Amino acid sequence: MMCGSCSNENAFKLMYFKYMDKVRGGIPPNDEAMKSCLDNLSPGTPRLSVLSFHGGFHGRTPGALACTHSKSIHKIDVPLYDWPVADFPRYKYPLEENTQENTAEDKRCLDKVEEILERQTKNSNPCVGIIVEPIQAEGGDHHGSANFFQGLQDICKKHDIVYLVDEVQTGGGPTGKMWAHEYFNLRDAPDIVTFSKKMLTGGLYHKPDLRPNNAYQIFNTWVGDPSKLILLDSVLKTIRQDKLLETTLKAGDVLLSGLRRLENQFPSLLHSARGIGTFCAVDADTSARRDQILAKLRTEGVHCGGCGETAIRIRPALIFETKHANIFIESLEKVLKTF
Amino acid sequence: MMCGSCSNENAFKLMYFKYMDKVRGGIPPNDEAMKSCLDNLSPGTPRLSVLSFHGGFHGRTPGALACTHSKSIHKIDVPLYDWPVADFPRYKYPLEENTQENTAEDKRCLDKVEEILERQTKNSNPCVGIIVEPIQAEGGDHHGSANFFQGLQDICKKHDIVYLVDEVQTGGGPTGKMWAHEYFNLRDAPDIVTFSKKMLTGGLYHKPDLRPNNAYQIFNTWVGDPSKLILLDSVLKTIRQDKLLETTLKAGDVLLSGLRRLENQFPSLLHSARGIGTFCAVDADTSARRDQILAKLRTEGVHCGGCGETAIRIRPALIFETKHANIFIESLEKVLKTF
C-alpha cells in the first residue's frame, strides 16, 4: 500500500468481503449482484458500516475519513458514509489515583459500542468491524487501557466482526515495542493491523481467513514500492542491531518521569502526563498556553508539536536517547518558568 | 499525492469545497456545520455526487471506486456512494465511414449527461463535477471525439460544475503529447487534471479558483515523495532531450497503420483499430480469441495486455520506436495467420 489512508481503505475491503461471504454462506455473488455493483446499486453494492471512535484519526480518503473524528477541518464539506461513532475512554490522570472512575469509563465506552452495533444491525447498516488506534494520536494522545482493548476484542468476537488496530502512528517502535497493541495482552491477535509512517510505506497484515476469494479484489498499480522496502529492511536491521527499542524504552522512562516531575512542579500549567516508550504527551491548561509553550520551546532549539486541543505531543525518532530526553525536560522546565 | 486513486479523491475534495463555498455565498461554515461533520452528519457532511461514465476506471479508494465502472470484480461487495453513471460514446470504426452514427452517439451521450445533472439536483444529490478519461483505458480503450469532450466542457460551464480530466493512464506522453486532452481543442483548459503512473507519483493541477480556503483541508503525511520527483525530473528532461514525444508519434503511426492493414487482412479476427500516439488498441472478435492472441504473442517474445472485453491494448514505453512497432506488427501478423 502507498500510505496509511489506503492501508485502512483496503483493510475495510477485507472486512466487507468477509462479511458478505458469510451473508451468502460462501456462495459467490450472483449475476444480479455482479451487474448491479457496476452502477453502485444493491445488491452488488451493499450497505455496510465500520465503527470508529470520537477523537480517532484514520486518514483522509473517504472511508478512512468517515472513521476520522479528530478535527472538523479534515471533514467539513466532504460527503461521507453515514457511519456510526462511539466514545473512546477519557481517563483521569494520574491513572493510579483514579482507578475506579477510569474502570467505569471503560465500561461506559464498551457498553456504548455494543449498543451501536445492535442499532446498526437493526437499521440494516451493519458494522463489519471496528477500527481503533492503540493510542488516539492525532486526536490528543488519548490512551485506552488493556482492559478496554480486551473488551473491544471480546465484543468483536461475540458479534463475529473484524477487530482492526490502526498502528499507522504507533507502529514501528516509538512505544518501545514494534506494535503498541503488544502492551494490551490481547487473548488473540487483532484480525488486521495497518501501518505506515515509521514503516516508510503503507501496508497491513491480517489473519488468513480475511484473504479475498478472488484475484484483483485488492490491487493497485505499484502494489507497494520496492525502493521503500529496501529502506525499511535497513531500518529494521538497524533497530535490531542498535537495540533501538531498548533505547526508546530507556529514553521514554526519562521523558515520562520528567513530565510527571514538571506537572507536579507546575500544576497550574501542566497535567495528565502519559506515555508508552517515547510516545509521550502532557496537557497544558489551555490551547493558547500549549501553543505558547511550543513556540517558546522552538526558541530553545526544541521542535515539538501539539495534538488534540491542549496536548503537547512528543514524537522523537528511534535514535532519541536518555541524554536527549534530559535536554528536552530541561528545556521544557526553562520555558515553564517563564510563565 | 501518492497514487492515481488519491489524486482523484483529492480532486473530488476541491470540487466539494468549491461547490459548498458557492452554496454558502463565500461565508465560512458555521458552528453547527463544523460540529456535525465530526459525526458524519448534515449540514457539515453534505450530500454531493460526482458524475462518471460506464466503462471508466478512476481508482479503488471509495470515491474513485464509485466512479469506476469497468469490471465488477473491482466493486463487488464494497459499500459506495450512490453516485450516477452516464454513457460514454461507443463508436463504429473506421470513424471516417461512420460519421453520422458517431455524431449521433455523441449527442445521445451528452443529452444523457444533462438529464442526469438535472435529476441529481432535483433529488438533492447535486453533481459537483464530472470525471472523465480522455480514453477509457482500463475499460477497453474507448475513445471520445473532440466534439464529445468539448460538449462535456460546455455542459460543465452551463451548470457551473467542475470538469475533471483523469490523465492517470493517458498522461505523460504515450499519446505523443504530454496530455491526451490537448488533442480535443477545448475552448478552455480543464478545471482539474489528475495524473500518476508514467508521472512516477500522483498529483493534480487545477485552476486557481479551486484552491481550498484553509490549510490542512488537503494534506497527507508525505505530501508527495521527493525521491519520485527527482526521478520524474530526469524522465521529463529525457523526454525533451531525446524528443521522445516525436518518437512516440512516429512509432504510433506505424502501429496504427499496421493494425489497420491487419484488420483488413483478417476481418473475421480483428476490428476497430484505433489509437493516438502509441496508445493503440484493436478488438478481437471474441474474448477467448483476444486471450489466445495475447498468449501466442508471448511465445513470439511479445508481452502485450488486454483491456475491456475484447481489446488488445498496446502500451509501450516512450522509448518504443518505429523499428519496435514493425516487430510488433510482424509478430501479430504471424500469430493471426495461425487461426
UniProtKB/TrEMBL annotation, chains A, B:
<dbReference type="Pfam" id="PF00202">
    <property type="entry name" value="Aminotran_3"/>
</dbReference>
<dbReference type="InterPro" id="IPR015422">
    <property type="entry name" value="PyrdxlP-dep_Trfase_small"/>
</dbReference>
<dbReference type="GO" id="GO:0009450">
    <property type="term" value="P:gamma-aminobutyric acid catabolic process"/>
</dbReference>
<dbReference type="InterPro" id="IPR005814">
    <property type="entry name" value="Aminotrans_3"/>
</dbReference>
<comment type="similarity">
    <text>Belongs to the class-III pyridoxal-phosphate-dependent aminotransferase family.</text>
</comment>
<dbReference type="InterPro" id="IPR015424">
    <property type="entry name" value="PyrdxlP-dep_Trfase"/>
</dbReference>
<protein>
    <submittedName>
        <fullName>Uncharacterized protein</fullName>
    </submittedName>
</protein>
<keyword id="KW-0663">Pyridoxal phosphate</keyword>
<keyword id="KW-0032">Aminotransferase</keyword>
<dbReference type="GO" id="GO:0034386">
    <property type="term" value="F:4-aminobutyrate:2-oxoglutarate transaminase activity"/>
</dbReference>
<dbReference type="InterPro" id="IPR015421">
    <property type="entry name" value="PyrdxlP-dep_Trfase_major"/>
</dbReference>
<dbReference type="GO" id="GO:0005739">
    <property type="term" value="C:mitochondrion"/>
</dbReference>
<dbReference type="GO" id="GO:0030170">
    <property type="term" value="F:pyridoxal phosphate binding"/>
</dbReference>
<keyword id="KW-0808">Transferase</keyword>
